[in-house]
Design goal:
Blueprint (H helix, E strand, L loop, with lengths): L7 E4 L13 E9 L5 E3 L8 E16 L2 E6 L3 E6 L3 E4 L7 E8 L5 H11 L10 H14 L6 H20 L10 H12 L7 H8 L3 H12 L3 H19 L4 H7 L5 H12 L3 H6 L13
Antiparallel strand pairs: 1-2, 2-8, 3-7, 4-5, 4-6, 4-7, 4-8
Helix pairs in contact: 1-3, 2-3, 4-7, 8-9
InterPro entries: AraC-bd, AraC_XylS_family_regulators, Homeodomain-like_sf, HTH-like, HTH_AraC, HTH_AraC-typ_CS, Tscrpt_reg_AraC-type_HTH
Protein name: AraC family transcriptional regulator
Keywords: Activator, DNA-binding, Transcription, Transcription regulation
């Protein structure tokens, strides 16, 4: 790696405003090590409790967790709690290990962190262009530029980063542009034909996949089954029709692909918390132009 590799470790010791619930950013850093003197032991550190996320940019390090040892190469991360039974270090005979890291206090974010770690594992791979890693780079750049100067900004970055980890863990390919081609084609077909009855058999035949494989890869990428996805598309169109037309509920149900008004009302209530009639009237609620669904 070039000698002009940007390094820097920035610590944050802000007073937390009382009685506000704030996330606590402890440190963020970018470094490159070539010396076997680089070694951290989670049982002997005295700066905990902390949560560590360390992401390898280039080279390789070793991560021991209990009796297991992981070689952490480019694109891999370490997720560890401090104190804890782990060690991470630069190996004998290694060339270099360059990485980004972030240390956070566990208050408020520990359940989210634990869920992400349960899904991803202790040494997960994350693409360099994934949202958590792009955000981690941004946080380091902000720190390097001296722009994290108070607790509110630091807290927002911690919460956003852990939320992005949870999002990536739950839906690793959550952005449509990153979906597998067959999933993207399936979604485009559902978008264009939501008014029709679309079975999983029909969709899988069009794409040349088994319906079980299609269901698995679609749900993994999108975070919803094809049936749930088309319901979401239909309800988004129903909201527009309720706001912009005088069509009856039965007629709207027919236009968006439901066989009858009663089922439409059931799905609409489940997804929005209101009946189509009360949503249209706006009684006791805010007036929305659009509702976004997960």
């Amino acid at each position: 790696m070039a000698s002009d590799f940007a390094r820097g470790t920035f610590g944050f010791r802000f007073t937390m405003p009382e009685p506000m619930a704030m996330c606590n950013l402890f440190a963020v850093g970018r470094d490159e090590v070539r010396d076997t003197g680089y070694r951290w032991d989670g049982l002997t550190r005295t700066d905990g409790p902390l949560l560590l996320f360390q992401y390898t940019l280039d080279g390789e390090g070793l991560f021991e967790l209990g009796t297991s040892t992981y070689r952490i190469g480019a694109g891999q991360a370490i997720m560890a709690e401090i104190p804890g039974d782990h060690r991470y270090y630069f190996p004998e005979g290694g060339d270099r290990w360059s990485f980004l890291f972030m240390l956070m206090r566990p208050a408020l974010i520990l359940p989210n962190w634990e869920d992400a770690k349960r899904r991803l594992g202790e040494a997960p791979y994350l693409p360099p262009a994934s949202r958590p890693i792009r955000l981690l780079r941004d946080i380091w750049n902000e720190a390097d530029g001296g722009r994290i100067t108070e607790a509110f900004t630091a807290s927002s970055y911690v919460y956003q980063f852990v939320s992005e980890l949870c999002r990536f863990a739950a839906i690793p390919q959550g952005e449509r542009g990153e979906w597998p081609e067959k999933v993207r084609l399936a979604a485009e077909y559902l978008d264009a034909n939501y008014q029709s009855a679309i079975s999983l058999d029909l969709l899988s035949d069009r794409l040349g996949l088994s319906k079980y494989h299609l269901l698995r890869v679609f749900q993994s990428a999108v975070g919803a089954t094809p049936s749930d996805y088309v319901n979401r598309v239909r309800i988004e169109h129903a909201i527009r029709l309720l706001r912009q037309t005088d069509l009856s509920v039965e007629r709207i149900a027919e236009q968006i692909g439901y066989s009858g008004g009663s089922y439409f009302i059931k799905v609409f209530r489940k997804m929005t918390g209101r009946t189509p009639g009360s949503f249209r009237s706006g009684e006791g609620q805010m007036m929305y132009n659009r509702i976004f669904f997960d």
